[in-house]
Amino acid sequence: MPEYSTRHDRELLDAIRHDDERAFSELYQRYAKEVYKMAYYRVRSRQTAEEIVQNLFIALWDKRSTLSINNVSSYFYTAVKNRALNIIESLIVHKKYWDYYKNHIPSQENVTERTIEFNELLEAIEKQVAYLPEKPKIVFTLNRLEGRSTHEIARILNLSNKTVQYHLARSLKELRLHLKHYTLSLAILCVGPDQIFFWL
Fold it and tell me: In angstroms, rounded to a whole number, what is the distance separating the alpha carbons of residues 105 and 8?
């Protein structure tokens, strides 16, 4: 029986499917740093990148009996990309919305009433964003919620600038169409549709 360090990835995966913890440890030692670098490149946070690494390997072990991986590097690349984008969306949306709201509501106004109105508007925006196709939704999130430039997004998603601009325009067009039904909420917020879309 060869040492684990000399085994091919396919052999390690086969051993992991049969609950071999040493094979799993070897796979971790072999790929953890690479996975961390891929994650950090996307999220630019050491703590978040470390969490992605931990969660990916935990998920791999938990699903070991049903593993179907042909190329380990490709598997981790795709898994990191998906997890990073999910984290970006979940961590940014509510914070950005709420920060904007606090900066645009007069202190003497009825906060409870305004909060209800604003929450209704946010629910409408978030619902529509969820319905966007994958690429426009990701581009919208990175640009309007995280504040990344189209050039940065093109680099992150491996797309051309024109493609990023197309997806951004598409997402904004659909959101504008959806938000036209919420003119009352926009008026109550004392924010015109153009300002909302600039913020978006």
Answer: 60
Q: Which two tokens stand for residue 16?
A: 């992991």
pLDDT tens-digit readout, 132-177 = 888 888 888 887 767 778 888 888 888 888 898 888 888 877 777 7
Structural domains in the chain? 4-82 (1.10.1740.10), 105-199 (1.10.10.10)
What is the sign, positive or negative, of the torsion defined by CA atoms of 66, 38, 158, 198?
A: positive
Q: What is the pLDDT of residues 10-51, one digit of tens each?
A: 999 999 999 999 999 999 999 999 999 988 887 777 888 888
Burial 140-179 (b: 16+ CB within 10 A, else e): bbbbbbeebebeebbebbebeeebbbebbebbbebbeeeb
CB 73 within 8 A of CB 34: yes
* Predicted TM-score (pTM) above 0.85: no
Q: Which residue carries 């925006």 as its tokens?
A: 125
Please tell me the chain's helix, strand, coil percentages from 3-state DSSP, rounded to the nearest 5: 80, 0, 20
Question: How is residue 54 annotated by DSSP?
Answer: H
